[in-house]
Amino acid sequence: MQTSRRGCQGSTILAAEPSSRTRRPHSGRPKPSQASKTQVPTFLPCAQGRTTATNTPTVSVPWSTLEQQRAPPDAAVTWDTIHVGHMPLVGFEPVAAMLPDRLTGLVQLHTFLALGSSQHPHDQCMVLDFLPERPTDPSTALALASGGSTPGQFRVRRLKGWIQGGSIRTRLVLKLGRALSDREALEAVDRFNSRWDSRLRLLHNDCRHYTAALLTSLSGEQFCIDDL
């Protein structure tokens, strides 16, 4: 018969109950158990309202499902293309994976912005979006469904390669007349995020409103949610 006790990092360790039979002592040392390795998502330095590193796996979704690593900062990187993308809401990736291709558009409800380079379009990208702090928490869904608001987070991620996936689609919106350096792009996004309301509310201040306003700020042209 076995009982369980709680070990480090929340793992459950099974331990056998004492037996009435006499056992021979072991001469060798027991092998230390290896703690399970938990991948901790990493984020760029945060500004007001931006998320910091966390050990909650759902925070990095849907990017973690792409198995792409964040590229290190590179002073030589420039961004001159702006793209708008759509993907499933956090937590709905398994549902999207089970749907046929013609129906994936029904669950691509999360809108984001991606910066790219026309000279090296497949090397890396910077992905910018706005979503609830706890996107899979039932209380978040209840607050939003009832017309209320919930704390939001601004995510800024630099990825190796172009963001891709079976349930993700992106399209080129425009090419900038002058390319932004990596530092210029980050500073521009930081300034924008510091002024944006971090309380997310459906139909009033959600990922679509954020993406359209950020697109307007970076491009100098006027965009609305219908343009996304």
UniProtKB/TrEMBL annotation:
<feature type="region of interest" description="Disordered">
    <location>
        <begin position="1"/>
        <end position="41"/>
    </location>
</feature>
<protein>
    <submittedName>
        <fullName>Uncharacterized protein</fullName>
    </submittedName>
</protein>
<feature type="compositionally biased region" description="Polar residues">
    <location>
        <begin position="1"/>
        <end position="12"/>
    </location>
</feature>
